[in-house]
Specification:
4-stranded mixed sheet; nucleotide-binding; purine biosynthesis; 42% helix; GMP Synthetase, Chain A, domain 3; binds xanthosine-5'-monophosphate; glutamine amidotransferase; globular
Length: 319
């Protein structure tokens, strides 16, 4: 019988049997899959689990602190946080091509994860948040950015000389099953039912070259948009919503002053499979309110636009 409790019990049993008393390392991204693996393994093997959380500096507002608060402080999971913002910024300096940025971000993740796991000389296992659709996906031929999806979270990071064995407790589960298990394991439903967030993070939501100044402005705008969606009960009526930073300047006025500042685009879509998507018909009043808040509260942004492109012909992300 499929109940989340049964799945959890049998996963715990097989993980314990599989890894015995050996140490397991997991790349924790803060996304649903790796979070559920962390919660499950923590329950199964407690302190034998060591999570490595790479803060790329391309995460959403306060996301790094939230991951640490939930797993390390609240649940007592062993988490090593690596603050790698400056390394990412250095590597991305002067790079504006989207695919090149993706490759740099993905490779750097693998590099940092390898460095950290190499220090864990007792680790014998690598846990991954692979779910059933990932198994199917990597079996089929994929082109373009689709094949890079998750590559640096789920399949990279195998340290060359450590010969870690793989443990993938979600390998047979679909996304909605993973979510149910997450809730059953006590993860907050806000995190379990969060919109998908791309592996390269804000790196592909800042058009062109990534700069800290841009990432900081984008984080603030994105946070206003998302928190207003929650407040107006619209978050779960969209499949994915986010802000995009456009590195062009536009003129505006505030009081008696002239502003010449950056532009934010808001994107919200409705979709079942993310292969095609419609732009979400959010209420005008709501969009107006979000736009006012962004322009009034964020010095550096003078204009907000709403993206009304479907997929196809556009993609969901801007890069
Ligand atoms: P697009 O932009 O291709 O996005 O319509 C479809 C879905 O995939 C996500 N996405 C990514 N996820 N790494 C990821 O992990 C990536 O490089 C990447 N590019 C797009 C996107 O957020 C959307 O959910």
């Amino acid at each position: 019988l499929w109940t989340s409790k049964n799945i959890i019990d049998s996963s715990i049993e097989s993980v314990r049997e599989q890894v015995g008393n050996e140490q397991v390392v997991l790349g924790l991204s803060g996304g649903v899959d790796s979070s559920v693996v962390a919660a499950l393994l923590h329950k199964a093997i407690g302190q034998q689990l060591i999570c490595v959380f790479v803060d790329t500096g391309l995460l959403r507002l306060n996301e790094g602190d939230q991951v640490m608060a939930m797993f390390a402080e609240h649940m007592g999971v062993n988490v090593i946080r690596v603050n790698a913002e400056q390394r990412y910024l250095d590597k991305l300096k002067g790079v504006s091509d989207p695919e090149e940025k993706r490759i740099i971000i993905g490779n750097l993740f693998v590099e940092i994860f390898d460095e950290e796991s190499a220090k864990l000389t007792n680790a014998k296992w690598l846990a991954q948040g692979t779910i059933y659709p990932d198994v199917i996906e990597s079996a089929g031929a994929k082109t373009g950015k689709a094949h890079l999806i998750k590559s640096h979270h789920n399949v990279g990071g195998l340290p060359k000389d450590m010969k870690l064995k793989l443990v993938e407790p979600l390998r047979e589960l679909f996304k909605d099953e993973v979510r149910q298990i997450g809730v059953e394991l006590g993860l907050p439903s806000d995190m379990v039912y969060r919109h998908p967030f791309p592996g390269p993070g804000l790196g592909v939501r800042i058009l062109g070259e990534v700069k800290k100044e841009y990432a900081d402005l984008l984080r603030l705008a994105d946070d206003i948009f998302i928190s207003e969606l929650y407040k107006h009960d619209l978050y779960h009526k969209t499949s994915q919503a986010f802000a995009v930073f456009l590195p062009v300047k536009s003129v505006g006025v505030t009081g008696d002053g002239r502003r010449y500042e950056y532009v934010i685009a808001l994107r919200a879509v409705e979709t079942i499979d993310f292969m095609t998507a419609r732009w979400a018909q959010l209420p005008y009043d709501f969009l107006g309110h979000v736009s006012n808040r962004i322009i009034n509260e964020i010095s550096g942004i003078s204009r907000v636009t709403y993206d009304i492109s479907g997929k196809p012909p556009a993609t969901i992300e801007w890069e």
